[in-house]
Design a protein that fits this description.
There is one protein chain. The chain is mainly α and 156 residues long. Helix content is 71%, strand content 0%. The protein contains nine helices and no strands.
């Protein structure tokens, strides 16, 4: 039986080593903040999650991802007006960001702004808005389409 060299033990079979990202990489820090905020909210500490996102927004105020995440957590807290405002801000940066469109639509729907909600949900039927939502949260696409049909029935 032949002894393996140290390189053979640490290098995967395909010959590639994993890429390490520096722990101070801005994108990595942003992803960690977003994940930690959602983890806190999932554990019932919504206020802490919102606080984490707020702090991260102080460093990255033009991050549509952070703005969209803040909107989503505010929507889950029932803070519809604030959720819509953060979603609007995210959409000013990335106009067809699917998760932001989704959050805005549901905040508007919950606030009774049916016509505007229908208009936003229409953006999620096809094109770049739907592609974005499909890429980031495919499970929300059918929910958005069900809400669109529900609102259309209300208007009919």
């Amino acid at each position: 039986m032949r002894a393996q060299s140290n390189t053979a033990k640490t290098t995967p079979r395909n010959g590639h080593r994993p890429v390490t990202v520096p722990s101070n990489d801005p994108k990595m820090l942003l992803a960690r903040a977003r994940n930690a905020a959602f983890a806190a909210a999932a554990q019932g500490n919504l206020g802490h999650g919102l606080g984490m996102l707020y702090d991260a927004l102080q460093d990255e105020p033009m991050s549509h991802d952070l703005l969209s995440d803040m909107a989503a957590l505010l929507l889950s807290a029932g803070k519809l007006e604030h959720a819509a405002a953060y979603a609007d801000r995210a959409l000013q940066i990335h106009s067809l960001h699917g998760p932001s469109l989704y959050t805005l639509a549901f905040a508007l729907s919950g606030s009774g702004e049916i016509d505007r909600a229908i208009g936003v949900l229409n953006e999620l039927q096809s094109g770049a808005g739907r592609d974005s939502l499909q890429a980031e949260a495919p499970e929300l696409v059918p929910v958005a389409m069900i809400e669109l049909e529900r609102l259309r029935r209300i208007r009919a």
